[in-house]
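Section handout 9: paired folding examples.
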Amino acid sequence: MVQHYSAATHSPGIASPGATTAVDWEQRVDFTRLRTQRSAKVRAALESSDLGALVLFDMNNVRYTTATHIGNWARDKLFRCVLVVRGQDPILWDIGSAARTHQSFAPWNDKGNWRAGISSWRGSIAEEVGVERVNASRIAGILREHGLAGEPVGVDVVELPVLKAMEREGLHIEDGHGLMQEVRSIKTADEIALLDHAAGLVDGAYDELYRYLHAGVRENDCVALVNKYLYEHGSEEVEAVNSISGERCSPHPHVFSDRLLRPGDTAYFDIIHAFNGYRTCYYRTLNVGGSNQQQREAYRRAREFMDNAISEIRPGASSADVVRHFPAAAEFGFSSEEEAFGLQYCHGLGLSNWERPLMSRYHSFDHPVELHEGMVFAIETYWPTPDGSAAARIEEEVVVTGGGCELLTRFPADQLYVAGTRYWPGADLVAPDTAGTATSHRMER
C-alpha cells in the first residue's frame, strides 16, 4: 500500500505539519519562501520563453505571481490584472481600496507596483466608455518603455473587447496560460505542505460526516455539515461539496440534491476547498446502515483501478502508464472516452483544481507526459453496479516523490465502509450460552 505523505520527512525545515499558528520556537510553512520561490519560477520561465511579458487575469495566476488575495468573490470578475515584464517586478492593477491595502501590508513588492485600476466588470461598463482602450494603452506604454513593444505578449484568459483593444495597440498576443501551467506543475516544499494541510482538513470533515450519516438525512444536510466544519477549522473557501446518493450515483450528476438517504444506500461525496489558496478534490464513498454484494463489488473494482494506477507513479513514468489501468468507456456503459470523461482520470492540484498533469484515456496514450518529482495530482475512479442502482467513486491525492508517490488523503478508502445505525435481527440478541454467560452474534455490515 502506498505510504502517506509526511511534510516533516520530505520538506526539510517545515516542522509540525498540520499546525497553522506561527511560533517563535520552530520554522513551519515559510510564506516568505513560498512567495519568493513562486516569483522566481515565473521570472525564470519568462526569461527562457519567446514571450517578452505576461498579462494575467486568471485569479490563481494573479495570486501565484503577486501573493495577493482579495477574496473568492473576485474569482470570476476578471478585473484584477498583472503585468509581468522580463527582469522587472510585477505590476498589479487592483480594485482601488485593495491596492491601498497592498501598499500598506504587502512589502514584497514596490509600493508603486500596487496600482488602482478598473475594468469593464465583465461588460457591465459599456465598451463605448473606453475602459478597455485606456488599459490596453497603459500596458502598451509600459512595454514600450522597456523596449518590448515588438515582443509577443502572453495572456492567460481574456474578455474579447480587452483582447481587441490590446491588438489595436499593436500587441502580438499569444497563449500565456500554458506557460503558467508549466510553472505551476512542480510544487515547492511549502506548496506541498499547504496541500497536505488542506487534505487534512477534509480528513476531519469526512470523520464528521461518517459519524453523522444515517437514514433520514438529506444530501444537502451533508453539504451543510461539511461546509460548517471546514469554515470553522480554517478553510479559506469551500468551492463545492458534491453529495450524491442511491440511484443518483449512476450516472454521476455532479451536483447535490435534497434527496433523502435511506437504509442500504450508497453515497459518495467530493469535497473541494482551499487552505491558503491550495485546493483539494477528494471523493469518498460510504454506505448507510449496510451494504450488499453488488455495492461491495463495485467498490472493489473502483479500488482496483486506483491501486493499479498508483503503482505506476514515479519520476520518469508517463501518463500513459497510469491511465492504461483505467477501464475503457465501453466497459461501463459509455460510447466514447469523451462521453465518459471525468470518471476515470487524474488532474493536477495547486491554487486551482485544473493544473497539469491531466491524464485520461481520451488523450494520454497519444500525448503522454512525463511525471516529475514535486507534481501533485488527484486520481479519480468510478464503477457502477450492474443494475445502475449505485456506484462507487474514489479519489486519492498523491505527491510524486523521489521513490514513487505518497498519499495526501488519509480518510480510509481501502474498502467500502458502512456508516449509520447498526441493525440487529432478533436472533442475534444477547442470549445465555450453555455455561450461563451472555453471548451475542453480530450481523455482517
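Moving on to protein 2 of 2.
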Amino acid sequence: MSADLDALYQKIKEDAEAGGYHLNPDTEFTKSLIAGLMKNEERYGYQACPCRLTRGEKALDLDIICPCDYRDPDLSEFGACYCALYVSDEIARGEKRAVSIPERRPVEPSGHHEEEMELVSLKGLPFPVWRCKVCGYLCARTQPPEECPICKAKKDRFERFI
C-alpha cells in the first residue's frame, strides 16, 4: 500500500502544482488524507473527501469527489479546503496555519436533484462567471480564483463575464 500511497501522493501533488494549487506541507498529514481518498475509492469506487460523510452513491456525492466543489471558495475565504489537503500560498510557505472552517455542503439532499437542476438552469447560473483576461479561462463561483489554473495570472486579472 505504501508504494500506491506514494504514487498517488506524487500524482495529486503534480496535478495540484500544475493547476496553481498547493498541497498541505505536512507530508504525513497529507498522506493520511490521501490514504482516506484511497479507502473511499475502495469502498465506493470514487475518491470522496475523507473528511466528509459520503452518501455512498456517486451521483449524490459528485460535489465531494476530490478536489471537491468547495475547494476554491474555501481556499479564497479561509486559505485551506475543508480537510486542509489544499492550502494557500501563505500556508504552504509556513507563514500561516490552516484553521478549522465551516462546512459548506448542504446537510441532506432534497431528493429532487433533476428538478433542482432544471430550476437552476431556468433561473440562470447560481454564481457569477469570471473570465481570465489573459487566457480566457472561465469559472462560475462567488469570487475569481487567487490564480488562474491555466496561465497562472493573479486574481486581479479576472473580470466578471456574466
